[in-house]
Amino acid sequence: MANGMAGLFVGASGLKTAQTALNTTAHNLSNINTTGYTRQQVTFSDTTYVNVNSKDKVSYASYGLGVAISEVRRIRDQYIDLAYRNENSRLGFYESQYNAVQEIEDQFGEMQGVTYESYLTNLYDSINELAKNPTSTVARSSLIQNATAFIEKSENVYKGLRDYQTTLNTQVSNMVNKINNLAGQIYKLNKSIAKVEAPGMEKANDLRDQRDAAIDELSKYIDITYYESENKETIINAAGVPLVTAGELTAMGTRVVEGTTLVIPTWPSYERDVYEDGKLASNADDTDKGQLKGLIIARGNMVVDYTVVPVAPDSNDYDMSTEEGRTAYQQAYNEYAKQQEYYNTYVEPSAILSAMAGFDKLVNGIVERINGILCPEKTETRTNPYLNADGSEIQADTYIYNSVDKAVLYDRYGREVTGTDNGDGTYSYASGEKLYESAGGAAVPVDSYEYLMLDMDKTGYGMDDDKTVGTELFSRIGTDRYIKTIGDNGETIYLRNNLNETDYESLYKLGNLKINPEAAQNVGKIPLSTVQGKEDFDRAKELVDIWDEKFASLNPDMYAKSDYMSFYNNYIGEYATMGKALYNYVGNQTTMVDGYDNQRLQSEGVSSDEELEKMIKYQQAYNAASRYVNVVSEMLEHLVTSLGRI
Questions:
Q1: 74: left (phi over 0), alpha (psi -120 to 50) or beta
Q2: Which of 14, 34, 35, 558 has the CA that lies 20 to 30 A from 511?
Q3: Burial 14-51 (b: 16+ CB within 10 A, else e)
Q4: Each residue of 443-500: pLDDT tens digit?
Q5: How far apart are CA 225 and CA 77, in angstroms?
């Protein structure tokens, strides 16, 4: 046992360590409600021992000089942290997917009472009433009213989907900034922690808590792996790239998809995108992680319409009894297979893109079918183009090119167009645009021109004095349906117009649709009368019958076709099923994340009762050390006083 002056060292060490323990306990209690705080614990060890000779002069006796603080450590389990962050990353991925599906369901009002389906039903009912009396002004006005409501609602839904895509795009940009900010925080904390702990005398526990909180948040946004280096700095890899290292910080950037405002996260330092375009996320290979990836997949990297949905060729349209017919069908099917693969890779995984494409397909199908009955058309193929009154060439519906010696040509927008292999080293093309040798190069000679024109033998007429023909119900913005010109026989003909006022391709797609103002302002011009001015019951019945026709399959992987109402119900049902699955997945992930977080709280969290018990214990230890010092002090005083009397 220590004696003399050494006894004071024992007491002093007891006072010092007890005070440190009390301070640590008080620090725990003061941070009991601090998010991310980790409970700290004091561990004790022996101080220096002093050796003294024993009586046998051979062995040594020793006595200690008290107690010391070996470490003020955080009670934290790195394995629970790892599990928490892995599942938190996966939760972020699926939450973004689920939110997107919820937004799609909200746009169609399926849970708000007034559903989009009611607009389809009202349009059908007005057509059904019109079929009873095609010349009724009241029935025609009702058709215009319900068709207007149908188009306005369709455009509003589509605008809502586009707006949400813009919102997701903003969230992507904001999340890139958040990731960069968190990475910057971690980098700075690394340096601060290394500076404090470098001498090896102190633990930067509060700074470590801040760093762990930043890593927790970062794990939700992007898939990360990490480890702590020898110099106490946490090295982080994000999406396979070193995000935070000991010597540098890799900032994430963005690039804009050409022709859109959509941004793609990039690693400027590595000159590549953060995520490989077209690579699907999978739970099986552990790539379904990170809210950033979930947002990008839900948003998509393009703006789509019905044209991206491939349509399988119908063998009935080909003469399968001949080699040429079978070859043509096989080539068409091969092209369909390529389009299907593209759709499944780039469109189908995105909730927003597949919603926009499928919805536009439905509306386009209804609009074009109704217009096609009111304005029946036929195809004319000729070797020379039709001309306007000023002598300029009228754009054909299709340009035919045979025996071209290039596999790829370009339209006027610079887009590649792939030809059909003729098997003799040449290729054939059928394009709605004139084609060129290269982007901006010379035009390829056209072999024949294919025009769609109003079939005057099948057309209906308006009830007006002019017996107007070619009045469609739905129009494209800034685009007339027909161009009037003079045919070879000197009669007026109506050629389908595919260009808008600015000379760009114009399709019957959402964002470009409206009710034909000519029909809306004068319902008598709707062509549902015969040339004799009688009711055209046959044409009106055709309008009713289209609602029972098999319109299209829901997606390229489904071969069974549905009518309009069934298509819509299946369309909504698919998102309801997807939403339910994602809801369950998010629920399960939330339970897992909360479970790991609760495990962390049980071991890392501060318990007021436990800390108060420790405070009493350390207070008693402090008091005991204080009394010990007093006793030793009195003993020394007594010895000194006694020696002074001798």
A1: beta
A2: 558
A3: bbbbbebbbebbebbeebeeeeebbbbebebeeeeeee
A4: 999 999 999 999 999 999 999 888 999 999 999 999 999 999 998 888 999 999 999 9
A5: 16
- Best CA proximity match to 200, nearest among 74, 75, 77, 70: 70
Q: Where are the beta strands (DSSP E) in 559-625?
A: none
Express each pLDDT in 588-623 by its tens digit: 999 999 999 999 888 888 888 888 988 899 899 889
* DSSP helix/strand/coil, 636: helix
Q: What's the mean pLDDT in 245-263?
A: 92
CA 127 remoteness from chain centre: 39
Task: Of 4-8, 72-76, 162-166, 429-433, give the range with the top mean pLDDT.
Answer: 162-166
Q: Indicate the helix (H) or strand (E) that contains 76.
A: none
Q: What is the pLDDT of residues 509-529, one digit of tens each?
A: 999 999 999 999 999 999 999
C-alpha pair distances (Å), 95 with each of 199, 214, 262, 424, 588: 44, 20, 21, 54, 11
Specify which residues 476 forms β-bridges with.
479, 513
What's the burial of 485, exposed, middle or buried (CB within 10 Å: 0-12/13-18/19+)? Answer: middle
Q: Is 246 exposed, middle or buried (0-12, 13-18, 19+ CB in 10 A)?
A: middle
For 404-437, the DSSP string reads ES-SEEE-TTS-EEEPEE-SSS-EEEEESS--BS
Contact 347, 304 (CB under 8 A): yes
Let me know: does 388 contact 483? Beta carbons within 8 Å: yes
Residue 20, pLDDT score: 87
> Tokens standing for 294?
């979930």
Burial of 130 (0-12, 13-18, 19+ CB in 10 A): buried
The pLDDT tens digits of the residues spanning 80-122 come to: 999 999 999 999 999 999 999 999 988 887 655 568 899 999 9
**Total residues found in the chain within this entry:** 646
Q: In DSSP terms, which residues pair with 482 in a beta bridge?
A: 496
Could you tell me which residues come within 8 angstroms of residue 74 by beta carbon, excluding any fewer than 6 positions away?
A: 38, 39, 40, 41, 203, 205, 208, 209, 604
Residue with tokens 């455009």: 155
Output the six-digit token pair for 288. 């379904």
Q: Is the pLDDT of residue 1 over 50?
A: no
